[in-house]
Amino acid sequence: MGRSKLTIFAASLQVCLHVFRTRTNQSEYVGGVLIGRKLLPAKQAPITPAAFYKSFTARKHLTPAVRATMELLTSTDIQERKQVVKDVTNIGASKPGANRRAFMTKGLAAGTALGAGLFGSRLALAAQDPDDDDDGGSLTRGDAAILRFLGALEILESDLWEQYWELGGTQDNEFAPATGGNPFYTDALTILDGDMAQYIHDNTDDEFSHAAFLRAYLESKGAPTTELDLLDGTKFRTLPGSKADGSSGKGRLTNLTQLTIDTSFWTRYRDDAHNPDLDPGFTFGQAVKGLNVGQHPAIPRSNDDTAGCSIGNETDHLKAIAFTAGFHFAFIECGGNSLYPSLAQRVSSRQVLRILLSIGPTETMHFQTWQDKAGNATPLTDTDPITKATVTFADLTKNQPETLQANLIMPEPTPFLSRKFPKCSIIRPTATRGAAMAALMGFVADGLFIGQSQEFFELVRDLAADADQARRDRG
Ligand SMILES: [Fe+2]
Ligand SMILES: [Fe+2]
Predict the structure, then answer these.
(1) Distance 370 CA to ligand 2 centre (A)
(2) What pLDDT shows up at residue 423?
């Protein structure tokens, strides 16, 4: 729903609220008269609920959503009426500067439940505190916020991994209809490892499973998932994605064609003297300097990017795209590798802790695999014809310092918590303060959301802020 439509929707609901107030302020049912959008003083004439409803649905200017709202307002169940009044009040109260997500998600919740006329949805609506879109159901509010943010990121991850899978993964119908793949891109990826297509498939499968689980768990606890509905729906799937052979061509949440990849994760895990948690000002070196500058495609945007390729003999341009993907895989999964342990420190429920401790290490397994494969990139230099960005891949398997050497994939022991302790081999960083926003901003800086709407940014930023406000309940 666009911004203007939301505004109209909210205005319409405000009219309904006015009607309701007029009606409930009286001792009996009292009708009102709508002229345009203006409600004239009600006549003191008791009417039945059915007659009341009919008097308004007869007005042609009423939208289906407003009519459905009217139907709810005439319900004989006072709790249901109170519920919808609170929702309408919240929507109408949304002003510039107010919580944007609350406005968007309440619009969605009301629109879904009312527009569809699904009275069963009222139960779900009633299970939530309508004054609080951050309600946690039977979870603490903080736990719900953390799971909701992680669920959102997993949806975003699923979207980007699905794009990689369509073009470069093993093709089956396990989690989405097979597209046939892009044979040249798939083959170029095998330079990194002969099993790349299978690994891409399985990483994608994992992300879909993470997103689905987190959403189902939140729902099972009665915690709202309206933000996840928004991200799962079509509203933000507006980015064009690839037009190359193998792409489904559907709209995307994420952009894999203009990436600026911070490859410092590479040296961060090979450095035995610095830990980002203890040395926040320290700059870790890049594995591939060129990827951290300019905008690089990690998928073929069209068949132009695969032109001149044959199987077993891809152009340096397509190889550069495949190698860019290889480092991007590691960058993305390294984010989850830190994020889960960082947020786990602030959850309250042991079961939620178990969830974070069980999903997090799978991100680490992904990261470890990907950094091993990325190190197999072969030397080449390519300048992208569209973005004009240049990248040079060196042979990291030979004659490299320890901070770059490809096969040093086990984390080097490093200072942890305090330098008074012996060095320890650990995930890094894991500081919990601001971890959600840092992860999100890392993805933003990566260029993953180039082309997304302001509403999208506000939604995900709000989710991150809520997750970072979560505090462990020591009770
Ligand atoms: Fe994941
Ligand atoms: Fe992941």
Answers:
(1) 11
(2) 98
Average of per-residue pLDDT across 345-360: 98
Give 173-214 pLDDT, tens digit per residue: 999 999 999 999 999 999 999 999 999 999 999 999 999 999
Around ion ligand 2, residues with a beta carbon closer than 5 Å are: 157, 333, 336, 363
Q: Could you give the CA distance from residue 73 to residue 215 in angstroms, rounded to a whole number?
A: 30
Instruction: Return the pLDDT at 474.
Output: 72
Using the mean position of ligand 1's atoms as its centre, give its distance from the Cα of residue 220 in Å: 20
pLDDT of residue 133: 59
pLDDT at residue 75 in the model: 46
Would you say the pTM of this structure is higher than 0.90? no
Tell me what the pLDDT averaged over the chain comes to: 81
Report which of 463, 453, 465 is spatially closest to residue 3, judged by C-alpha positions.
Answer: 453
Q: In the block, which residue shows the tokens 């916020």?
A: 145
Ligand 2: distance of its center to the CA of 157 in Å?
6
Identify the pLDDT of residue 136: 84
Task: Read off the pLDDT of each residue in 33-46 and give the average, rounded to a whole number.
Answer: 37
Please give the torsion angle defined by the CA atoms of residues 143, 145, 151 and 156, in that order, rounded to the nearest 10 degrees.
-150
**Tally of residues, the chain:** 475
Ligand of minimum distance to the alpha carbon of 160: 2
Q: How far apart are CA 346 and CA 349, in angstroms?
A: 10
pLDDT at 149 over 50: yes
Closest ligand relative to 363 C-alpha: 2
Query: Could you say which ligand is closest to the alpha carbon of residue 210?
Result: 1
| CA 333 – ligand 1 centroid, Å | 8
Cα 155 to ligand 1 centre (Å): 9
